[in-house]
Amino acid sequence: MKKSILFYVMLAFSVLTATAQQKVVFCEEFEYISGEASEADAVKVRSAAMNGVSTSRRASIIDAVNSEIGRDRTNTAEESMMRRESIRMMGGTHIMYGRVNSSKESHEVVKGSEKNHDKYTRTISFTIVLTDIASGEQVSRDFQVSDSQYDDAAKAHSKAIGQVDNQVWAYIREYFPLKSHVLDEGFVKQKDEMQYCYISLGSADKVVKGDYFDVYKVALVAGEQVESKIGEMEIVEVSGAHVAKCQVKKGGAEVLLAMNEYLDIKFRDPKHAEPLRVKSATKGDTVWQKIGYAAGGVVGTALGVYAVFLEELGGAAE
């Protein structure tokens, strides 16, 4: 009874705090291939994957195993469909399932100046399957992580599990991109290039400084809308609940030209005017940003800013 109450409290919180674009993912039990991995591996990989989803700022995660709708492997196709509908009615948008395909440890002796060391390496391969509840479409992706540690096999295992968290975090941000458009007010241009502009995403959409976006213009081809990438931009300031200031990083001239074309069409024929679109890109994603954003508050902001600084420093070095 207590478990059920806790589940519904967590469910209500996840659904209420999810943004319009954010997804709600129900995570099922992870399997493992007997003889290649263990149940403990499956439990650890699942926990790390759930944390990767939770910190992605793209989806809320619900533990379906510890709920009354835990996965029943004897379900018929009809029962599975009814179960998906129940999850949908509870606010769920996707179901995540996983399998650990292998978890292997290798060992080698490394000669040191004073003594030899045992080097342990743990390599884990696993599969994540995401099911879109509305359409029933499934997308599967295979992953492999590996990490090493001297004189401590358990630490090597733990570090590899940490890589699971990071890889799933990056995958979820790629799988659930944020989409919006460029606002046609307040942009700053210099000569023939756009320098700064605003997009219709903000704190309520869980964007932060350093988030990167690709910019697209829309054309009508054979009666269909076709997007063409024309630039890239990065958030430099979250200005409001649904407003963020961006610096144009690439394609400033193309973005300004496309904006002027849009404004001209909007003036002459508003019904057929299509604003410039933006879609989140993974280029600006780094593990340092993940750590900073997950920390929250002043510390999180500081780490997030430091992440951007590191990235710019790396770019300057190139």
3D structure, described in words:
The chain is α+β, with helices and mostly antiparallel strands. The protein folds into two domains: 2-175, ABC-type transport auxiliary lipoprotein component (Rossmann fold, 3-Layer(aba) Sandwich); 179-285, Thrombin, subunit H (Beta Barrel), CATH 2.40.10. Helices cover 36% and strands 35% of the residues. It is built from seven helices and 13 strands. The chain has helices spanning 2-17, 39-54, 77-89, 153-175, 252-268, 287-295, 297-317, and strands at residues 23-27, 31-32, 59-63, 94-110, 117-132, 138-150, 179-181, 188-190, 193-199, 212-221, 224-240, 243-250, 277-281. A seven-stranded antiparallel beta sheet has the order 7-13-10-11-12-9-8, with helices on one face. Strands 1, 2, 3, 4, 5 and 6 form a six-stranded mixed beta sheet that branches. Strand 5 and strand 6 form a beta hairpin. The radius of gyration is 23 Å and the shape is globular. The N and C termini lie far apart (58 Å). The model is unreliable at 1-19 and 294-318 (pLDDT under 50).
